[in-house]
Amino acid sequence: MGMLGKMDRIDRKLLNLMQRDASRTNVDLADEVGLSPSSCLRRTQRLQKSGVIDRIVAILNPAKAGRVIKALVAVELKLHGEQHMRRFLDIAITEEAVSHAYAVTGETDVVLMLRLRDMEEFDSLCERLFRDQTNVARFFTMMIIRTAKEETAIRL
Hints:
Blueprint: H1 9-20, H2 26-33, H3 37-50, E1 69-77, H4 82-92, E2 98-103, E3 110-116, H5 119-131, E4 136-143
Antiparallel strand pairs: 1-3, 1-4, 2-3
Helix pairs in contact: 2-3
């Protein structure tokens, strides 16, 4: 069952609060969930040590950080199999514009989420990832024109 089975209502409340705003002080979190600051700190440290909290980061606004174009790319590889998939993913994840890279089931082998500065960056990324000797049979690009939902929080 993992750590989730050992979490109580207070742990879940703490995690939900931290997912919305991890910059809140321990004293503020403790007050919100009805614990002493020392007890709250012990809980958050336990959640970090157990791996439930993977990492604490600042989430940037991509457009304000200069990455104004968002795209999804579905990639079909010529040669299949774990080592071919891994080789392509190893190349893809070195690209600055690749924010997410997934090996997937179905007709597509890999799905990439891109955050691009401009179409020139996309063109040069295509040259490196899809047109040279990278085992790509074909790729399909979907430019994101509107984001209806993009959530980082995991509902508990």
